[in-house]
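Blackboard transcription, Thursday session:
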Amino acid sequence: MEVLKVPTMADFMAEGKQPEVLFWVGSAGSFDDRAKKITKAFVKILNKAKVDFAVLGTEESCTGDVAKRAGNEFLFQMQALMNIEVLNAYEVKKIVTCDPHSFNCLKNEYPDLGGNYEVIHHTQFIQELIKSGRLKIQGNLYKGKRITFHDPCYLGRANNEYDAPRDILKNTNASIVEMKLHKRTALCCGAGGAQMFKEPEKGDKDINVLRTEGALETSPNIIATACPYCNTMMTDGIKAKEKETEISVLDIAELIANSEEL
Amino acid sequence: MQYLPNILFAIALVLGIGYFTKNVKKLIRNIKLGQHVNVSNNKSQRFKNMMRIAFGQSKMVRRPIAGILHLIVYVGFIIINIEVLEIIIDGLIGTHRVFAVMGVFYDVLIGSFEILALLVIVSVVAFWIRRNVIKINRFWNKEMTSWPKNDANYILYFEVVLMCLFLIMNAADQTIQIMPGAPDSHYVKAGSYPVSQFLLPLFDNFNYGSAVILERTAWWLHILGILIFLNYLYFSKHLHILLAFPNTYYGSLKPKGQFNNLESVTKEVKLMMDPNADPFAVPEGANAEMPAKFGASDVQDLSWVQLLNAYTCTECGRCTSSCPANLTGKKLSPRKIMMDTRDRLEEVGKNIDANKGEFKNDGKQLLGDYITHEELWACTTCNACVEECPVSIDPLSIILEMRRYLVMEQSAAPAELNNMMTNIENNGAPWPYNQMDRLNWKDE
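(Written on the board underneath:)
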């Protein structure tokens, strides 16, 4: 297996250099077994496209996003101010992340607290790599497959990015099928607002199951996601519907990495 | 005695507008109970939003059937109200159809009012059927108890009656205009009547006297109805016809994902993190502004824009019908959050009225007595409700403020969330993993 090249900001600093972009891995991307695969797939893409990137590694800490949404503004601002101290010390200018929640938080909520960076989501970054010719998509692995894309709330509604993930998917030669509720009207996977970390309130159905039913209506081979939490929720939904042998749930980064046999 | 109608008209006008003004003042007073928030920036963008979303109805038509029906009623309402101006002038100085001097233009005007009036009646009937016969889900959620349901129907009946009176008034006028040998020239030959002409056969056997009585009755009931309608607004969900404009003007200009950062918290956190700060120091200017509390437990803790939101809500339920928690049977309904906020604000307002301008603790609050913890914790902060609202209401911001109160003032988060937050505090991740292991994935 090819070794992943994952330099840290400290490595760059030691050499007196600045990377092109900081890859913010996020807590899920660092610790969650399923999300780690997405992280690695994205690193493979970065390596393949020869992107000069770095991670914070052990100097990275939770953005505080989930604490903020749970109502703990204290904890959020503590995390934010600590992270901003680190990011500013490294003179970070540009950040990319696979997590729409980190993306939204770093992009929109850090500036007020003194953290001003250009923040982009990994789907936007990959779209850019393809457009600029740094990444060529040639694989035909998904030719003829039906892929439906589940919009993450914090990329879509929260930040109006609906096109980047779809643009990337078009490069895989798959046929893209839209759910009834997509883009602006996309249904949440059920994990946002700190729901990921608690049991849902009493109801008659789980949100991820409802969303999965919407996805199944499109008879997909693959459900594409662009958020580690959505990925977990949709994977669980597919299991609840006992469709895990027929349908896979993959992040856009994984789709591209697989397609290019990275 | 010949000025009696003019005097009666003036009295009706003064009473109608006077009572309305009184309630508008109360409305403004109640909204101002909210916390100050700076929304004076970016006026041109705000104006554009208002023109696009409220005046241009851009978000209404996202649901095409309801959107187009609403557009007809909205355009009809605005345009037909030009007629009200003529009615007021006529009523005050005793003229009849004073704008008739405009000639052909007047004919076009009256003709288009009539067509719009007919379209409004058709749309309102369609609305009534959607609500009461087809029973579209969002009109029948739990929070749609008897008053909200009746309120919606009353407005529909009102609009039908007003439009019918307008058409009957015109038909009676025509009857007089075309009556051979009508005694005086008070009823000028003016206007075109593409719709009400079909009502003429009904009044075939009317003589001059009874036609005048019919015309006057319809005219008076029409204007009195409008004045009553105006005064009904304050008590109804129908306030949106006025408040949609300021509400879209003051709506958020930021990306929907951006939640505000509490400045009061920033001060404390910075002090905490400053190694040179004296932990026992008296805060600069001890009586300097210290927030009464973090987050919101009652309406006075919310911002005035959030309170304006509550009065603007017309209970259409688009938010609730797109809420993932509500769609899966949870108690949360964003519309209920707005209705509760308004109900509580009204209660606080009445309390202030009853206690000579000062609020007396009534042992109640928005949190708990109106909105339960269960509702607040069911929210996924997905912004579907905010995206859906046709008049830029933000129920999510209220939910967040109340979560803030629960967590920061009462430590009343669900236990699992407390675990998650403890993990972040201890090891910088929502799970119990060591921060030193954060890069292990690359070698796994």
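Lecturer's comment: Chain A has a mean pLDDT of 96.
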